[in-house]
Amino acid sequence: MKILVTANLVPFMHGGASYHIAGVVRALQQAGHDVELLRLPFRFSPEQDIVRAMEHAASLDFVRPNGVTIDQVISLQFPGYGLAHPDHRVWVMHQHRAVYELYNASQASTELTRLREQVIAFDNVALSRANRVFANSRRVAARLHDFNRIAATPLYHPPAQAESFRCEAALPYVFFPSRLETLKRQSLLIEAAQRMRSSLKILLAGEGGQRDALAALIERHGVSDRVSLIGHVTEAEKRAFYARALAVAFPAFDEDYGYITLEAMLSSKPVITCTDSGGPLEFVRHGDTGWVEMPDADALAKRLDWLAQHPREAAEAGLRGREAYRAADISWRHVVDALTQPL
Q: According to the lineage, what is the superkingdom (predicted)?
């Protein structure tokens, strides 16, 4: 089939979405389909730019562009899923979160409140019109139901280079690779470090807008001897840090999916996450494949100190996580079958 995949282009911002987009295009091509990727420019502000992006997406008709018949369209992101096609499948990575679960009416500007109404109306029309709607995770599906009354099927996919992750003998550190942003809550681990009694180290990999603030927090709490901002790491370096970690920390707030959880499981490492972390809770079973703690520095400090004292139990939980990943049958083959199943 000739399949058009639509996604966003946000210049010089790369993360999990980039791996997701590349992965689905590659998997469809490997399955024998003729695939084109259409990336629509997107800006998160000002609000009027988002309105224009919605209007542009809604104006696109890919039934037969330039006389070429496109058999199927698969859209991954807002607002690209607003375009028109008779066989349109939508796999929602997440919606425009600023007007959904992150929206705070008491703090929102008039412009954001107006945008919220427009985005919800746009999503209700666009997603109701799609032939099939999938979600990146059960958490994303739940948001679609709660805010839009849209039924979506959760569809999991593997992280990039899933076959390359490995496990080696653990060293006394926990690893957290992620963008340095407020929602990822690296600050919780820094605050936990101040309360810890063990000498366990915390390695925070990645770059982002909160780097200076996190560096200042480390200095203020006097924990530079146990918390390190190690900056950007290559994919090979990241896998090496996973391989030698005692455990992986992932205390983010209301994550959509979270490659970190799956990468940790592939590396046979247990995950410490929080009760409000969203996507990771679909994989982390407390006391089995990891630990789910309150989003509280004291609770995290106690768990990290416990891990330092119980490396054997940590290793065993990591092995159970690896088996849980295998049992879940998370594969691109399954994704392609679901997305391209005849109507």
A: Bacteria
The verdict on 191 and 140 lying in the same domain is no
> Which tens digits make up the pLDDT trace of 209-245?
999 999 999 999 999 999 999 999 999 999 999 999 9
Number of Cβ within a 10 Å radius of residue 69: 9
- Provide the residue range defining the domain that includes 114: 2-156+331-340
CA angle 196, 202, 205 (to 5 degrees): 155
Q: Which two tokens stand for residue 137?
A: 């995770």
Three-state SS at 301: helix
**C-alpha to C-alpha distance for 126 and 141, rounded to whole angstroms:** 16
- How many domains, in total, are found in the chain? 2
In terms of Cα–Cα distance, which of 77, 86, 93, 66 is closest to 40?
Answer: 77
pTM for the whole thing? 0.91
CATH number for position 118: 3.40.50.2000
Q: Is 167 exposed, middle or buried (0-12, 13-18, 19+ CB in 10 A)?
A: middle
Count of alpha carbons within 13 Å of 102, Cβ hemisphere only? Answer: 13
**Are the C-beta atoms of residues 206 and 231 closer than 8 Å to each other?**
yes
SS3 89: strand
Please indicate, yes or no, whether residues 136 and 260 belong to a single structural domain of this protein. no
**Same domain for 166 and 303?**
yes
Cβ atoms of 256 and 137 within 8 Å: the answer is yes
Between CA 226 and CA 202 the distance in angstroms is 6
Q: If residue 175 lies in a helix (H) or strand (E), which one and from where to where?
A: strand 173-177
Q: Are 188 and 297 spatial neighbours (Cβ–Cβ below 8 Å)?
A: yes
DSSP, res 157: -
Neighbours of 317 (CB within 10 A): 23
Helix, strand, coil % in the chain, rounded to nearest 5: 45, 20, 35
Separation CA 7–CA 333 (nearest Å): 21
Is the pLDDT score of 11 beyond 80?
A: no
pLDDT tens-digit series, residues 70-116: 999 999 999 999 999 999 999 999 899 999 999 999 999 999 999 99
Both structure tokens of 295? 């989003």
